[in-house]
Design goal:
about 1000 residues, alpha/beta, 7-stranded parallel β-sheet, globular
Length: about 1000
């Protein structure tokens, strides 16, 4: 990849889950459905007037190569239910709206565009679907999608060209009708990006509905229709109107998939990654709030004079801070008479105005005389000294920016800050462009930037440019003749598109260190479609208004940052770097509460216990051993109802004061079926609080490195011993594997043969027996009617076993007849059985051997230790004996780890302990493993003992997931191979020190 491109990770588990969730809906769809339909069409008795006949005519007339879905609706519903159950979602009893409409919910910043683009290729590989229309609500998003495809093209070609997939992507501009022709007739994968506006309308308003000679007298929409495209809707909540819905229907899609973070209307939900999941998985930045609010209760109340009137009687129109029914304040315009108390319940109902009245009014010039202030002229305001507060907010943002810049410059990460302004004039003033802008915000920014930069030689060295070079504004432009002016806008008008195109297409340029722009000013909340991964500060220089404003504003900076490397831009998931600071003019609590309300209105429970909270807990088998199966939605709801009935949570899912897990003898009183999962449930409930997702800046605490420790010979010797490298090989007894696999396949549930139904309406494929014969239907088994996939190669790729072993297993299973009747389902079942058996056997046959090198060099540890990172007090334990470990604070991920750190700190025989950094990784057959603690123990006069400890909540193997257990067993063998014999699991009450 070129050094300037973006690197995309093809193996993010949550993205692969989202892709598989859509692809698995069509499990059982034959790959050569098109051929099947053509072959079997002749069998069907088709009366002339039949719709299917017309369809065939249109397809033939256009010469369209389209998508054929031949699965029965009931089969798709069964697949949907399986996918929903696997993803811990409520399982639907029928298809919502009886339509093939599917919802994917993914939090902003988690790679939604990547997921749906890659889903296209997966559907092409698995089922030979080739025609895709991506529908978007605006030009800005259309540009964004087009940019994404351009940036990801090389990545997708790498992944899918070897599988025979090539693709073309184009934007439907609506300018010439012929652009649909090649889309309809090409045989490779075709992706067409359209705005909803280009199809919404009729022959008078849209080219797409007009007949064209060049298209044999057909309309462009007929060409699209003939292909039955898969329609992918990006941000569908902005396309929910009746008109938009009918426009989508006119494309006659084979099915529709909708992708959004905030669906207004829920249909068949197949995958959900909400803000809570995204944060827990470390897929978005940690949100931090820096508050800059007016201090002190004696602050002047806010009063703005808009107008003085004489008719019908003397009154002044004032903007005042009025109390709403729910107790919150909002600015409203009220009409006030002379001598009327401004705190009057009919006016403001706000006690801050007590004693404030208008003594006198004048029209020429227009002013009022206020009791405790004096004259206030029309257009002037006092109180809530917005100016002073905004200037302080700009200062706070610049401070945060400079701090981050000095932390991250050496890592190749360019820092950006984003300001949202109340109106264009506040930035431009009387100027016309970025160079001659002289509004208040520009003057304050330039002045404060120079002041703050002067405080440190490091800052001066990092950003020596003039402030005007470092800032850039993106506003909507209006062109009149040869002049261009800027305007305030909602962010949805045509005039916005120029500004957006500029900022959208400059995504890479903005990330380039050589581009001086670092501070971006914008008017409307750069609506959905724009974000930049390296926005680390967001400052709102206006009152937070609309219901979704905080969440939308945050969305512009939630994406994980990228660092420039030799291979292009790579994502940085390090929690100590990935933080987004919001500089707000309201208190942390107010911001967090308002954000929580916004999420709740959008149907997201953040900082509360969700009904599906427990659905991903692993299930036990009849012997009490944890499996890879999950609790599922129904069980989760039962647990949620139990917690509510017992008073641990309220009806909103908020945790109550009765939930005190650290008290002696605390217990949830769970029903006997779920009692074994109590510790996991307690941990999940404990995590449900808004403070986990949004933190105040005051809780930030830098850690101080104990430099002497790393250069101490005792430590050097210790580190060399524990960080030695190994390699492993696995010896698997072939006969044992074959016996186990044959048994597992024989015990797997029966696979129903697929049947073909040829009806007057076309061809359908279903599982199992025929469903009540209908008029003019013929039904036959699929056996032998199409080419079988290469089962041996597929299983080899999935398991790395030899062909001979796979053949022996398949013949031994005596179930190959079912493969011929339903190849896809049979391959999926065999793959699952083989992988499960391999996982069990691999760990028992693993052997580690020491090799040269270190898993994490000491010099690298020292270098990483000196770098400042963002850390928060609620995730750290303050060390009492600083000489015993490498930092003054120890990081912890759970309460068990906190207790263990406290114990190590207090025990005299523990001479040294450290929480091993995330980079300290050991290879195992089930993925890399990062052990928790390294310890030196020494009692008087005895030799030093090197220990490695893994902290868990239980010693019972059956309570750990199979992969977790496999990693721990492998690690024990690795440490034995390098001479560290004391590796153990430590749990409360049995710390094994």
């Amino acid at each position: 990849m070129s050094g300037s491109g973006f690197q995309f990770d093809a193996s993010q588990p949550y993205q692969l889950d989202a892709i598989a969730s859509v692809a698995d809906l069509f499990d059982g769809q034959p790959k050569d459905a098109e051929k099947l339909v053509t072959t079997l069409r002749g069998v069907a008795v088709l009366p002339e007037s039949d719709q299917a006949a017309l369809d065939i005519d249109l397809t033939q007339e256009v010469g369209a190569v389209g998508n054929s879905l031949v699965l029965d609706r009931d089969l798709i519903l069964a697949n949907l239910q399986r996918v929903q159950d696997r993803n811990g979602l409520e399982v639907a009893s029928s298809l919502a709206g009886d339509a093939l409409d599917f919802d994917i919910e993914m939090e902003t910043g988690t790679g939604k565009t990547y997921v749906y683009l890659r889903t296209i290729f997966d559907l092409a590989v698995r089922y030979n679907f080739t025609k895709f229309v991506i529908l978007v609500p605006s030009v800005a998003i259309r540009e964004g999608v087009s940019t994404s495809i351009r940036l990801m093209r090389a990545h997708f070609e790498n992944l899918y060209k070897p599988q025979g997939i090539t693709f073309d992507a184009s934007i439907y501009s609506g300018k010439s009708a012929e652009e649909v022709q090649s889309f309809a007739t090409s045989t490779n994968v075709q992706i067409l990006i359209m705005t909803i506006d280009s199809i919404r309308g009729n022959a008078n308003t849209r080219i797409i509905h007009q007949t064209r000679d060049k298209l044999n007298g057909l309309r462009p929409i007929d060409y699209l229709k003939a292909t039955h495209p898969v329609v992918i809707m990006d941000e569908p909540q902005n396309m929910e109107s009746q008109l938009s819905q009918s426009a989508v229907g006119e494309l006659e899609p084979v099915f529709t998939v909708r992708y959004s973070a905030t669906h207004k209307k829920q249909r068949n939900v197949v995958y959900r990654l909400d803000p809570v999941d995204a944060h827990d998985l470390g897929l978005v930045k940690q949100i931090v709030v820096a508050e800059v609010a007016q201090q002190g209760a004696d602050a002047t109340p806010y009063i703005k004079l808009l107008e003085v009137r004489r008719e019908p009687s003397w009154s002044a129109r004032l903007e005042l801070s009025c109390r709403k029914v729910d107790g919150s304040l909002e600015r409203r315009i009220v009409s006030v008479k002379q001598h009327q108390e401004l705190s009057d319940p009919r006016l403001t109902n706000n006690p801050i105005y007590e004693g404030w009245r208008i003594n006198e009014m004048s029209i020429e010039p227009a002013y009022i005389d206020l009791t405790t202030h004096g004259f206030l002229f029309e257009g002037e305001s006092i109180g809530a000294s917005a100016g002073a507060i905004y200037k302080e907010m700009i200062r706070e943002t610049i401070r945060e920016h400079l701090r981050k810049e000095s932390m991250l410059r050496s890592k190749g990460i360019k820092v950006l800050s984003l300001f949202f302004v109340d109106k264009v004039a506040s930035y431009l003033g009387v100027g016309a462009n970025n160079d001659d802008a002289n509004g208040d915000f520009v003057q304050w920014f330039d002045e404060v930037f120079i002041e703050e930069r002067a405080k440190s030689p490091r800052y001066q060295e990092l950003l020596p440019q003039a402030p005007s070079e470092l800032r850039r504004a993106y506003f909507s432009q209006i062109k009149r003749g040869k002049t261009t002016s800027f305007q305030d806008s909602s962010g949805t008008s045509r005039a916005d598109d120029d500004a957006y195109e500029l900022i959208m297409q400059q995504k890479e340029r903005l990330l380039d260190e050589n581009e001086p722009v670092r501070f971006i000013f914008s008017h409307s909340a750069l609506r959905e479609g724009w974000d930049n991964p390296n926005v680390f500060q967001i400052c709102t220089l206006r009152e937070m208004g609309a219901e979704t404003e905080r969440r939308q504003t945050l969305g512009r900076g939630l994406r994980l940052p990228v660092a420039k490397t030799d291979d292009g831009y790579a994502r940085v998931a390090d929690r100590g770097i990935a933080t987004l600071t919001v500089v707000a003019n309201e208190s942390y609590t107010k911001f967090a509460d308002a954000l929580q309300r916004e999420y709740k209105d959008a149907g997201v429970e953040i900082g509360r216990v969700r009904r599906a909270e427990f659905s991903k807990i692993p299930l036990q088998d009849e012997n009490g051993v944890l499996t890879d199966d999950q609790f599922g939605y129904k069980r989760s709801v039962l647990v949620w109802e139990h917690l509510k009935d017992k008073g641990f949570i309220d009806k909103e899912g908020a945790v109550t004061s009765k939930f005190q897990p650290n008290q002696l003898g605390f217990d949830l009183g769970l029903p006997v079926d779920f009692a074994w999962a109590e510790s996991i449930i307690i941990e999940l409930v404990g995590r449900a609080n808004i403070g986990k997702y949004v933190k105040p800046v005051s809780k930030r605490q830098p850690r101080v490195l104990n430099k002497q420790l790393y250069s101490n010979p005792v430590f050097e010797e210790f580190w060399e011993a524990i960080s030695q490298k190994t390699t492993y090989r696995v010896q698997v007894g072939r006969n044992q594997l074959i016996d186990n696999a044959v048994r597992a396949i024989r015990e797997a549930p029966k696979i129903d043969a697929l049947r073909i139904q040829v009806t007057r309406a076309g061809v359908k494929v279903l599982r199992g027996g025929a469903k009540g014969e209908e008029l003019g239907t013929r039904s036959a088994d699929l056996k032998g009617s199409y080419d079988l996939p290469d089962i041996i190669t597929e299983l080899q790729e999935a398991t790395s076993l030899t062909r001979k072993t796979i053949v022996d297993i398949l013949i031994g299973s005596e179930r190959l007849g079912e493969f011929i009747g339903n190849p896809n389902d049979f391959i999926a079942m065999t793959k699952r059985s083989l992988q499960a058996e391999l996982a069990k056997i691999v760990v028992d046959g693993i052997q580690y051997e020491r090799i040269a090198g270190s898993v994490y060099e000491l010099r690298e540890l020292q270098k990483d230790g000196e770098e400042e990172k963002e850390r928060f007090l609620d995730q750290m334990y303050k060390v009492q004996h600083a000489q015993k470990t490498d930092f003054d604070y120890v990081l912890f991920d759970s309460d068990v780890e906190r207790q263990f750190a406290e114990l190590l700190d207090s025990r005299e025989d523990i001479k040294l302990f450290m929480k091993l950094p995330a980079k300290f990784k050991i290879d195992t057959p089930v993925g890399p493993y990062n052990p928790d603690w390294a310890i030196i123990k020494q009692e008087d006069g005895e030799d030093r003992i090197y220990m490695i400890r893994e902290t868990k909540s239980t010693l019972d193997d059956s309570k750990l997931r199979p992969t977790e257990l496999a990693k721990i067993k492998s690690a024990k063998r690795h440490f034995e191979a390098i001479g560290i014999d004391d590796y153990a699991r430590a749990v409360p009450g049995a710390w094994k020190l």
